Amino acid sequence: MPGYRYESDGEEISIARGHTIDMKYTRKRVNWLARQFGQLTDPASLSQLLGVQLHLLQLLALQPRYNTFRVPKKNGTFRLIEDPEPHLKQVQKRLNTYLQCVYYLRRTPATYGFQISVDGDNDPRNILTNARRHVGNPWMLNADFLDFFHQVNYDWVYRLFTREVFTFEPDLAELLAKLTTYGGRLAMGAPTSPVLSNLATMPVDDALTELARSYDWTYTRFADDLTVSAQACIAPAQVQEFLNTIAPFGLAFNEAKFAVRSPAMPKTVTGLVVTAQDVQLPASFVTDTLTEIEKLGHLLEIHYRSGRPVTRWLEQYQQQVEGQLAFAEFILDDADSQLHSLRAAFVRIQQTPDLGEPVSWINAAYLEPASHTLY
């Protein structure tokens, strides 16, 4: 059977193909996959479930390899990325499929990020439905966990597998924890980190949901972004109670992103503008997307006139711009005038240019690829 090869100290080991799970999620399928994972008994059963030789799993756990690098953020700082090498990433992807199904069946009412989409789900969880929960509430508290994944350490993950979510034997729990952590905590880049962070913070969500219920608040969490909104004033004493509720879990906040917003202040939830009536894109997103569409049109025209083949870079640029347009279509109503402007601009650049017009390579934007991100 064709497979992957892993080499360590001169030994080559194969990971068989065919066990990667890429399917439409139905409720029946989710139940089955979650049950399969929950019935694991030891490392050998994990090996059989994943279709990966046990000694390779143990080697990957003992010597996890990651490509570590930094990428710039909009605020001028850098985000550390820890990208697992292909063999480990393949194992983590398979684990993620099962763990996501387990989480889907146990998710709290407050969580909206890092989740699978299941056919026929009448309670879809995504960035838009998260923001909609807060529409019409004039008071808002925004909070953001600092380096969220890195705060979920190895011991916490091990406890998930031994008593907090699962009741696996220590040898199986240790293998799973080592396969999914790096440097003693969740890695920013491992496929399993998002779902494990959700599983780890279920008690946090439960505690904050209970607090919110006592004050008639609305509480949601999308990944590391926590939002509380209310009809009545969120008083300083209540803010302190919010902080006291989280304190036992040892999770630190990003103080720069912690804020209470009064009725007169604009309100955003994971980058989306929340008003008394609906959810909107920030004006900067629409403006920036129009700018990127214009840049893309100029580049496409240059390639068309010069007879040059479209480069891989330009293809990726176009995909990024198309992604921004698709996001706008997801958020905005079909009749929204801003969406009409974006669609019209994109249609316009797809048209064949008039070859009688000269075109300049100056300011062609090759050195300024699309970089706008909402969240």
TrEMBL record:
GO molecular function terms attached to this record: metal ion binding; RNA binding; RNA-directed DNA polymerase activity
Q: Do the record's keywords include Transferase?
A: yes
Q: Catalyzes what?
A: DNA(n) + a 2'-deoxyribonucleoside 5'-triphosphate = DNA(n+1) + diphosphate
Recorded hits in PROSITE patterns, A to Z, give: RT_POL (PS50878)
InterPro entries with a match to the protein in the record:
DNA/RNA_pol_sf (IPR043502), GrpII_Intron_Splice-Mob/Def (IPR051083), Reverse_transcriptase_msDNA (IPR000123), RT_dom (IPR000477)
Which GO terms are recorded in the biological process aspect for this UniProt protein?
defense response to virus
Q: Which domain of life is it from?
A: Bacteria
Per UniProt, residues of the Reverse transcriptase domain are: 52-274
| A Pfam family per the record | RVT_1
Q: Which UniProt keywords apply?
A: Antiviral defense, Magnesium, Metal-binding, Nucleotidyltransferase, RNA-directed DNA polymerase, Transferase
The protein's matches in SUPFAM superfamilies, at most eight in alphabetical order, are given as:
DNA/RNA polymerases (SSF56672)
Q: What is its EC number?
A: 2.7.7.49
Record's family? Belongs to the bacterial reverse transcriptase family.
State what protein this is by name. RNA-directed DNA polymerase
Q: Which organism is it from?
A: Spirosoma sordidisoli
